[in-house]
Write a structure and sequence with these properties.
By secondary structure, this protein is of the alpha/beta class. The chain is built from 25 helices and 14 strands. Helix content is 46%, strand content 12%. The chain has an 8-stranded mixed sheet with strand order 4-3-7-1-8-9-2-10, sandwiched between helices. It has a 4-stranded antiparallel sheet with strand order 11-12-13-14. It has a two-stranded antiparallel sheet with strand order 5-6. It is globular and about 70 Å long. The structure holds zinc ion (ZN).
Length: 646
């Protein structure tokens, strides 16, 4: 390894004896947080004193890209140091990071670290493989109006993280904690007093609230006397369009508003205060950088240790397959070399980010050599990363399985696996924004309970090959009571896109609602037979089998799912229900209890356990279990109601 820059400079100034050989690491990811909405990046209206102080006391990285503006894949990159073509998680809600993947948490855990994660949203929860290497993984989002929630606020995340950190700070082993705040994601509804203070700018209010909560965590570490022996790293997972280039949120396009993320690292014994790094960097650099700061070896990956000379003189890459997988539009990727940016799309773009920070003047086509050099740089990163992915997948799979996955386009890619050569024929997402807006409005109409059939009929006419438009048309028809029309929409969609998970999900719900349980089972079996690695197939199959009263098979499906997603509360509950029907009361109880261990507010598990214990005449045990869940869920109202009702 080349000369390490800046390391050890301040060791003497530390004041607490020798610098830590294996420091603690606190990684905080701020979902959906644009760099330019933080004070440290020049925003004058931001209220982010905590982030700004970390940057001032450590290093601020000025030009960091997310590898993709999508939560699950971006976090998979943070944890593995790999770009999405290598780790294979290229869209939200579809693919799981394989259990064999080497993650920062797994490497640190093997080196003796205590590891704990506390996440704010379903998109980074256990089913997506991000729990890899974490001894504690807290993704219990609690309930609202008696139903499971899929996100929680920063203070709720902190309420779980703080006791763990207090214990870890007292422990002999160093700790690695990952804390994820989802607040800045839309809808923007900051709590008081941020709601009042940021009435006109609620997005900034959410960021201010997350920043203040981060401050509480840092204070706790300071009071425990470990802050100056802890690497504190705070990063955004992607930005937010807020209307920039026509995108309101994130995922579709790759302009700076969506891909430029904040990153600050504080480690006072090695990083001099006030350091500013201007060269391009990526979130894939975090895992190798943090492993190096912890003096723990990390495998060769796409990212690099940011404190090695030349680290920020490299090209960086970003991509999104959201438009391709959901809408059948073109995938988009981009490369940054120095200050130049190339966006590869049916209508490519080139920008000089210093001369034209707003990306208003597309330079593509004006200098063929400059275009070609960037295009080549992009292809080189993407190819290297894909090869890396195929190699690691090959190491984890037997030849048959690998060949099968490759034939389906699932190795080194996430979803439909279309050839790049087809990309040019697809719609450029930036040219489809009007349809995209109508789609978003139609979806809101469905969610409000309004009739949206006309909107989606128009969209399907405008873009007949678009899977998401057809899916929503089915939903709108179902909402109108036209079950036959909805079923026809879904079946047609599955015929066209046999790996489109949401179509299976909607059709299965429709069939189950009509009591056609055997047909729902057949549907999931058909998807499974395609060799799919889509997340959730086993759970949905187990659920369908339970509805169809096939308990043995349901148990097998749940067990198969638990193999790739150990500790998954939903699968544990499905398995427990199957066991209960088969008369295996002890196994059923163990399953419910294991589910409550990972999610104390899981009402399916709690209701199952209470009913089972009551049936066995163990009312006292049921009451004790419910009380434990009340404590562990910080008094979740629905859990409290269950406990009171025993
Ligand atoms: Zn996100």
């Amino acid at each position: 390894m080349r000369a390490v820059v800046a390391l050890m400079l301040l060791a003497a100034a530390c004041g607490r004896g020798a610098p830590p050989e294996h420091p603690n690491i606190l990684l905080v990811t701020l979902d959906t947080t644009r760099a330019d909405h933080l004070g440290a990046y020049g925003s004058t209206s931001a209220a982010t004193p905590v982030f700004d102080r970390i940057a001032k006391e450590g290093a601020l990285f000025e030009s960091v890209w997310t590898p993709t503006p999508l939560t699950t894949p971006a976090h998979a990159s943070v944890m593995t140091g790999l770009y999405p073509p290598a780790h294979g998680v290229r869209n939200n809600g579809r693919m799981r990071l394989p259990a064999e993947a080497t993650t920062l948490a797994s490497v640190l855990a093997s080196a003796g670290y205590a590891t704990g994660a506390f996440v704010g949203a379903f998109t980074v929860s256990r089913p997506f493989g991000l729990a890899n290497g974490f001894q504690t993984f807290d993704d219990d989002f609690g309930t609202e109006k008696g139903r499971a929630r899929s996100e929680r606020t920063a203070d709720q995340v902190a309420a779980r993280a703080l006791p763990w950190l207090a214990k870890a700070a007292d422990g002999k082993a160093p700790f690695f904690a990952w804390v994820h705040f989802y607040d800045a994601h839309d809808p923007y509804v900051p709590p008081s007093p941020y709601a009042e203070r940021f009435r006109a700018r609620p997005y900034d209010g959410e960021i201010a609230f997350a920043d203040a909560t981060l401050g509480r965590i840092l204070n706790a570490l300071r009071e425990a006397g470990v802050l100056d022996r802890t690497v504190v790293v705070v990063a955004g997972d992607h930005g937010e369009g807020l209307g920039d280039h026509g995108e309101a949120t994130h995922g579709l396009l790759l302009y700076e508003a969506m891909v430029h993320v904040p990153l600050a690292i504080r480690a006072p014994w090695v990083i001099p205060a006030g350091r500013r790094v201007t060269g391009p960097a990526s979130l894939v650099d975090l895992a190798p950088t943090l492993a190096a700061l912890a003096h723990v070896p990390f495998p060769e990956v796409d990212g690099t240790n940011l404190f090695v000379e030349g680290a920020t003189a490299r090209d960086v890459f970003t991509e999104t397959r959201f438009a391709l997988e959901e809408f059948g539009w073109a995938e988009v990727s981009a490369v940054r070399r120095g200050t130049m940016k190339w966006i590869e799309a049916p209508r490519p773009e080139r920008y000089d980010l210093v001369a034209d920070a707003r990306e208003a003047e597309n330079l593509a086509g004006r200098d063929r050599n400059a275009d070609a050099a960037l295009r080549k740089a992009l292809a080189s990163i993407s190819t290297t990363s894909s090869r890396r992915g195929t190699r690691s997948a090959a190491a984890a799979l037997d030849d048959d399985a690998l060949a099968k996955l490759q034939s389906l386009g699932y190795v080194g890619s996430g979803g439909t696996g279309d050839a790049a050569s087809q990309a040019a024929a697809r719609r450029d997402p930036k040219d489809a924004l009007r349809d995209y807006d109508d789609y978003l409005q139609g979806t809101e109409a469905i969610n409000r309970g309004d009739d949206a059939v006309a909107i989606f009929e128009r969209l399907v006419r405008s873009d007949p090959e678009n899977p998401e438009f057809r899916l929503r048309l089915g939903q709108a028809r179902r909402a109108r009571g036209d079950l036959g029309g909805a079923e026809a929409s879904y079946r047609d969609l599955i015929k066209r896109y046999p790996d489109f998970y949401l179509a299976y999900r909607r059709l299965s719900a429709l069939l189950t609602g009509e009591g056609r349980t055997a047909e729902a089972v057949a549907l999931w079996r058909a998807l499974q037979a395609r060799g799919t690695r889509l997340v959730g197939v086993e759970a949905r199959l187990a659920e369908a089998l339970l509805a169809d009263e096939k308990s043995e098979e349901a148990l097998a499906a749940a067990a198969a799912g638990l193999k790739s997603s150990p500790g998954d509360a939903e699968l544990l509950v499905l398995g427990a229900r199957a066991n209960e029907r088969l008369g295996h009361d002890a196994e059923a109880l163990a399953g419910y209890e294991a589910a409550l261990e990972s999610r104390p507010s899981d009402l399916g598990a709690l209701d199952g356990a209470i009913a089972l214990l009551k049936r066995l005449g163990r009312r006292e045990d049921a009451a004790a279990l419910a009380r434990r869940c009340v404590d562990r869920s910080a008094g979740d109202p629905a859990v409290r109601a269950r406990a009171a009702g025993i």
